[in-house]
Amino acid sequence: MPPSRSQKDWNALLAPVLSTSVKAASERLMQTEEIRQWLRQASAEAAEGMRQRPDMRGEMQGYTQLKAAFDERFPALLDAVADLTEGCGTIGLDWTPMNPTMSRVEVEFHRELAVDLFTRLDAPTLEAARAALYTVEEALPDGTPFPNRPNTATGLVAHDGSCVGVRVREHLGDDPGSRHRTVTLLPEDQNALENLSAQDAVPRLLQLLAPADSSAAA
Length: 218
Fold this sequence. Notes:
The chain has helices spanning about 5-20, 20-30, 35-50, 55-75, 75-85, 125-135, 200-210, 210-215; strands at about 90-95, 105-110, 115-120, 150-160, 160-170, 180-185, 195. It is of the alpha+beta class and about 220 residues long.
């Protein structure tokens, strides 16, 4: 099996794509030979062990053992993801015991959100908050949204160890060919702030991520 990469190596692999696509970051992991070889062997071994207890409890036990083995084999990768995401992200295993070769390693986050991209607030300023919102807007799908089914992109924006979900929706307007966007802010331990304009969302986002600095930036 190829030698493990250093944390610096993993950082260099993932950093260029996290701000555009978490899925692309996961794909990069799955393209590395050390991940593919380890996952193929370890996933098959865990599935073989499940034959002794082919029920939900056996599957949970198999996953727990597989995840522990991954954490032991790739600590530098876990450290890299934690560093790149300010502690908001980690590595998850999508284990398919009935078809071990389809198992995957994925970048995921400690939130009940389907996250399309991750970005940081470069500084506790309105300009930086505006740039972070723009990064999420750039991830909106191409094409015209359907009635009652807006185009949607969800990002996770981090600053100083805190992360806030930012969901941008592009709606079909009332006039032919027109569109408009709304923003929902999704803080971890607070109620969502919904149907904000981009102009209103920027200072709210800054307030959530850097409350001590938001009043001075206003």
